[in-house]
């Protein structure tokens, strides 16, 4: 057996056991491996650029405003931060100055809005200190963590994972990313949400229990963060339901408004 054939056999065996993602691009090309079909890469537009931001993972922090934690039945003074994820193809991009159609999802009769600041990372690592964490941020966006609340609560009551209430098509609504070089970092600023012109959520980013820097630091203790990760940083109090025909308007001081219509 030649050295080249032996290398191909070993590489092929590794691919069979661990998938082609475990091989480098060079090794995959050398033995002729390729995906059986293309899979779209989730991306987010970047203001002022033709390039787009590729999404690797979507993280969300739960109950990061004290008043919202209380309305969800939690005591924020004793609760450490906790996180959950959404699939990357849950992204729904909303362009500035538009009212995007947002489909009412199946299986729910209690569909809730949650307006949030979103941080987009250009780098990452493990065990990042809060003092270094903001160096990882590429930019910020305005987002909506849409939630099938009845499914989330039902699964929680049964002590089962409530992913079905949070992770579904179009559940990660987001405006374009604004590079931090243009906006600076967001430690404070008014954030609000209105439904059909009536304000429902209204708070300030300074009311977050865990800052963006602290969220990045805490997340990096659990898993290695990387470029392309985005973090939904939590929602203020007064989350509530919407129905078909409702128009949601989200505002965050320092960023353009974002709006969707439930269809």
Structure description:
This protein has 263 residues and is α+β, with helices and mostly antiparallel strands. The protein has a single domain (41-260), classed as Fumarylacetoacetate hydrolase, domain 2 (Alpha-Beta Complex), CATH 3.90.850. The chain has helices spanning 3-18, 25-30, 66-71, 130-133, 149-157, 163-166, 180-183, 212-222; strands at 43-45, 52-54, 57-61, 83-86, 91-93, 99-102, 111-113, 115-121, 137-145, 147-148, 172-174, 178-179, 190-195, 198-204, 229-232, 240-242, 247-252, 255-262. The strands form 4 sheets. Strands 3, 4, 5, 8, 9, 11, 12 and 15 form an 8-stranded mixed beta sheet that branches. A hairpin with a 6-residue loop joins strand 1 and strand 2. The longest helix has 16 residues, at 3-18. Residues 2-22 have low confidence and may be disordered. InterPro entries: Fumarylacetoacetase-like_C, Fumarylacetoacetase_C_sf, TAT_signal. Keywords: Metal-binding, Signal. This is Fumarylacetoacetase-like C-terminal domain-containing protein.
Q: Would you summarize the structure shown here?
A:
The protein has 263 residues and is α+β, with helices and mostly antiparallel strands. It is built from 8 helices and 18 strands.
SSE blueprint and pairings:
Blueprint: H1 3-18, H2 25-30, E1 43-45, E2 52-54, E3 57-61, H3 66-71, E4 83-86, E5 91-93, E6 99-102, E7 111-113, E8 115-121, H4 130-133, E9 137-145, E10 147-148, H5 149-157, H6 163-166, E11 172-174, E12 178-179, H7 180-183, E13 190-195, E14 198-204, H8 212-222, E15 229-232, E16 240-242, E17 247-252, E18 255-262
Parallel strand pairs: 3-15, 5-11, 6-18
Antiparallel strand pairs: 1-2, 3-4, 7-10, 7-16, 8-9, 8-15, 9-11, 9-12, 13-14, 13-17, 17-18
């Amino acid at each position: 057996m030649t050295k080249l054939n032996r290398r191909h056999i070993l590489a092929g065996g590794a691919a069979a056991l661990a998938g082609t993602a475990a091989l480098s691009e060079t090794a995959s090309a050398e033995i002729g491996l390729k995906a059986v079909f293309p899979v779209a890469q989730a991306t987010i537009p970047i203001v002022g650029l033709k390039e787009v931001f590729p999404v690797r993972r979507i993280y969300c922090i739960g109950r990061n405003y004290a008043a919202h934690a209380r309305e969800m039945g939690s005591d924020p003074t004793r609760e450490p931060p906790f996180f959950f994820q959404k699939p990357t193809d849950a992204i729904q991009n909303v362009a500035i100055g538009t009212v995007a159609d947002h489909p009412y999802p199946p299986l729910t009769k209690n569909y809730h809005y949650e307006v949030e600041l979103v941080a987009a990372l250009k780098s990452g690592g493990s065990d990042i200190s809060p003092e270094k964490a903001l160096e990882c941020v590429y930019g910020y966006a305005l987002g909506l963590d849409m939630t099938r609340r009845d499914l989330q609560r039902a699964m929680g009551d049964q002590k089962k994972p409530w992913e079905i209430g949070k992770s579904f098509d179009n559940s990660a609504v987001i405006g374009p990313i604004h590079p931090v070089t243009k906006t600076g970092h967001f430690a404070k600023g008014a954030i609000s949400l209105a439904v059909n012109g009536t304000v429902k959520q209204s708070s300030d980013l300074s009311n977050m229990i865990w800052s963006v820097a602290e969220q990045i630091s805490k997340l990096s203790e659990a898993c290695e963060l990387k470029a392309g990760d985005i973090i939904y940083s939590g929602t203020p109090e007064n989350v509530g339901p919407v129905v078909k025909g409702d128009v949601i308007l989200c505002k965050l001081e320092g960023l353009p408004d974002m709006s969707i219509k439930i269809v």
